Amino acid sequence: MGAGTTPGPRRRLATRLQRLFRRAHARARRRRKTTTGRLASLLVVAIAALMATIGALSVRGGDPRAGNRDLAGQVQARSNENKALAAKVAAQREELDKLSKTSGDPALNAQLEQVSARAGASPVQGPAVKVVLDDAPLDVKPEGVDEDLLIVHQQDIQMVVNLFWGAGAEAMTVQGQRVISTTGIKCVGNSVVLHGIPYAPPYEIVAIGDTARLLTAIQASSEVAIYKQYAEAYRLGWALEQVPHVTMPGFQGEAALKYAKPPS
Q1: What are the beta bridge partners of residue 188?
Q2: Interior CA angle at 165 toward 112 and 222, to 5°?
Q3: 239 phi, psi to nearest 5 deg
Q4: What is the pLDDT of residue 50?
Q5: What pLDDT is attached to residue 244?
Q6: DSSP readout, the chain?
Q7: pLDDT of residue 77
């Protein structure tokens, strides 16, 4: 009887020891995982903080006007490349226009020319008003003033463009590019992008139309008055000029509209 009952307690003791060992092993694994997870989390946070710091230094820590100057060469190279492509498109469009006018129908040709003029696809000429905007010089660094206030932004260009359209402008260019109803002006980094071409300042906006109305719209604008206050205080570039005669090219970009689509 004694020999038969001995293995029971031993088994129970062995089983208990195994359970205790498994629990201890599991706790150790959890502690290692927790420690590793914490270290990984700290590492991720540190990397994110480093990237944010680098981004802040590159965007805010340095003078954005200096960035404009440093990137001028790259902007010019990309601008020249895109202009060459736009010129190729314009040549093909001109050839297409010539082929379309061989129909021999004067009424149809006249209608085509009228639609082309309204769409901004045809070159135009006439008296104009020109506005030039520019960043403040690099030596202008007033204490306590955000450096973003010392550069020209897309909304400043859009302000002038909208005032010209509102005053009945018949045609317009920004940086020599024809502006149409679908034109978007966007800030990307330290440059302004128009029809896919980046430009560095100064920014030149020219509008053909009734020059008296165009000048009045600019001079009477409260938004322009605020901009001119900054221009006077911080030497931002501002110039307004009446031009007796200018010739503007037809629009050379893509006129098709693009729409956002929901993910399928």
Answers
A1: 191
A2: 180
A3: -145, 135
A4: 52
A5: 96
A6: -HHHHSHHHHHHHHHHHHHHHHHHHHHHHHHHHHHHHHHHHHHHHHHHHHHHHHHHIIIIIS-HHHHHHHTHHHHHHHHHHHHHHHHHHHHHHHHHHHHHGGG--HHHHHHHHHHHHHHT-S-EEEEEEEEEEEPPPTT---TT--GGGGS--HHHHHHHHHHHHHTT-SEEEETTEEP-TT--EEEETTEEEETTEEEPSPEEEEEES-HHHHHHHHHT-HHHHHHHHHHHHH--EEEEEEEEEEEEPPP-S-----------
A7: 65
Token pair of 91 as six digits: 């040549």
Can you give the pLDDT at residue 91?
62
CB of 184 closer than 8 Å to CB of 191: no
Q: What is the pLDDT of residue 122?
A: 80
Nearest to 201 by CA among 137, 130, 128, 129: 137
Consecutive 10-residue averages of pLDDT for the chain (264 residues): 48 56 56 52 52 48 57 60 62 59 63 64 91 92 86 94 96 92 80 85 96 97 95 94 94 67 79
Write the burial class of residue 146 (CB in 10 Å: 0-12 exposed, 13-18 middle, 19+ buried): exposed
Q: Quote the CA–CA distance of 185 and 55 in Å, as a whole number.
A: 24
Q: Is 200 left (phi over 0), alpha (psi -120 to 50) or beta?
A: beta
